[in-house]
Amino acid sequence: MKKELPKNYNPADFEDRIYKDWCDKKYFAPDPDKKKPAFSIVIPPPNVTGQLHMGHALDETLQDILVRTKRMQGFSTLWVPGTDHAGIATQIKVEEQLRVNEGLTRYDLGREKFLERVWDWKNQYGSRIISQLKKLGSSCDWDHERFTMDEGCSRAVREVFVNLYEKGLIYRGYRIINWCPNCRTALSDAEVEYAEQEGAFWHIRYPVKGMEGTYVTIATTRPETLLGDTAVAVNPNDERYRDLVGKTLILPLVGREIPVIADEYVESDFGTGCVKITPAHDPNDFEVGKRHNLPVIKMLNDDATINAEYGGKYAGMDRYAARKAMVADLEAQGYLAKVEKYSHNVGTCYRCKTTVEPLTSDQWFVKMEPLAKPALEAVTSGEIRFEPERFAKTYINWMENCHDWCISRQLWWGHRIPAFYCDACGKMTVSKTDIELCPDCGKPVRQESDVLDTWFSSALWPFSTMGWPEKTADLSRYFPTSTLVTGYDIIFFWVARMIFSSLEHTGKKPFSTVFIHGLVRDAQGRKMSKSLGNGIDPLKVIDEYGADALRFALATGNAPGNDMRFSDEKIESARNFANKLWNASRFVLMNLTDDDKAELPALEKLAIEDKWILSRFNQLVKTVTENMEHYELGVALGEIYSFTWDSFCDWYIEMAKSRIFDAESEGAKVARSVLCYVLTGILKLLHPFMPFITEEIYGALPHDDESIMISKYPTYDEKLVFTAEEEDVERIIGCITAIRARRAEMNVAPSKKAKLFVVTKYEETFKATAKILEKLASASEVVLTDSYDADDAISIATDAGNFFIPMRDVVDFDKERARLSAELEKTEIEIGRLSVKLDNPGFLAKAPAPVVEAERQKLVKYNETKAALVAAIAKLK
Questions:
Q1: Is 729 helix (H, G, I), strand (E, B) or coil?
Q2: In this model, does residue 54 exceed pLDDT 70?
Q3: pTM of the prediction?
């Protein structure tokens, strides 16, 4: 029984209904057929605190396009969804809620009660981002949904931690780390973002003990840290300071005695050639301090105030207030030599943008050197491929220069480090399970209060979500995963860590290909941000235009690794395309009979235009498939768009009308079959990009599939290559286009029919398409002739031949003469006005040269117009 589509395309009428149907029928689940090849992707888990933004929308759209394509191509697909516990972000959110609503801090509640609140918050709001991903049309297997702190992932985290610890690859040490005074936690190097900041070089004089009036001058951008200085270093080869090495300096404002040391680290030609050494607050100074066995004086509290032990009168001050006060005191006491303005890169917290303080702290670290080597080899050998390849350099550069990874965080929400301390005997035990008593002395133990860096659990995501460390069926079938889709901004945060973690713990790569995409920017190319107010809410776009239009706009023009611009024009274009497809489909459906199918008739029954569209569609299948394999999703969509709009809607449907309106003829039946076949194929190619509209239209077409998403993807067919017919129809299209353009120039209405005389060597082609020319070129009759006298005709030439339209068939000579004469009169008035103006010496003297030149150019153009009008009128006579 025939089905029809509503007159207007309204995605709100069917998108939610279709998604529910897909979920109910378990279409997103992997196919249990073991003969099918496997294709798997793990979603980059969005923060459980998150709301869908354009970055998520792009990321999930690209993944869904790949997964839907592979599913239709006969793969057993598994797309694992899930969320990240997002340690700092989630804890801050709940702490803020506590402060605003109850006036409490986490310390008022205590650790256990606070964590209960965080879990409550997670259970209440954590599914929000998942619901939004569903609204986008993501075809994840929701029965496989994971959370980085669920039971399985938590077990994997403990397994990995203990394994690394037992191999000596995790250690606890007093090291210099990055500290965020606002979040009150350590940060790894990858979590520090560098920003250009205006600052200064303060040149400070340090008196030499026992040498009245002799100073060593150092330059620093952080004068407040002199409270923690334990030496001044010079280069051992610097002749200027050779005699000072071994001498003692008096620390200004403090009075502490510190030595002058020699170390190769100092660059003689930078600054004064003397460097203050503050081992507790600079990573390079820390290393110098270790080499020279210097004391480590930590002068900052965790909130970046000056501590009481070493702060003296500045104790309790914020670091910047202390800086101001100390600089004033240095100047007052004659120690400030000079101040130079200086712009430099300063480390900031990736989360809150607060300037990070390097400081010494007891933290947990992962030894990176042994892990980095095989991870580098996996990429340089080609075992893991980056798409585009240029991003492999980013990865390699980071892996070659990475430091030990600080993995402890001073938070309560997260995976608590499984280390247990016995205060009675001093033993530390690292265990895969919680312990209450010391295995040595039997006394109670206390667990480490720090939690692990969020990225520690995210690094295990490709295999922990598959059931590791258990040897599960999913792990065996779908790991390593096939492709990772992610942005270039987290290559070192996440991609690198997944690679070395997977190689270390499973002996396998986590994925074969890393498909890198860029950022979504606004129409002007700016990064979307709250401060600029240029963010676009994808859910609002979906409400107004539908998920398909959003997906289409995000995929259009998308090139691997490149940022993309999102604009109103893009989303309008997407909606226009959806309308075009909807209306074309309605036309096809209205003309189908109950007996019509999307099956091709015998090839000998096909008309020339049928072979043209089938050959063009066949080539489209090949082009799209090749581009999809190379992750050129934007190019693939562009090809589908052009074919659908231009070849199918604007040309083939119009060509087919001359046959299908003769409903009972054999030609009509063939045309309907071809229309149905090509439309069905277009929908299948388009489905991964626009899943909802394609499903809705597909459901109205004749076929035996339950759903388009589990139908067979089109494949290239050598039998449907009709090169000669393609070339012939392209000639006809060129002819029609040229005739339409010429008639438009002459303001001839399409309804005005005229004979078309054709002089061509392609006589058979023009005979076969005469009815098409009559309809699309407004020809009352197509006459093939060996020659034609063009004196009284409109002449058009293309590579297919010469075409003539008798003037009297299209032009009312009296009316056209009157129109042209009126135009000529207006033109002559303008010529007269401009001539008078340009003959006026006053105008030429006073007007700027560009204005005079512009008027002269106008006169030239009006004279050219006059000549053309006079010639046209003469021709009509």
A1: helix
A2: yes
A3: 0.83
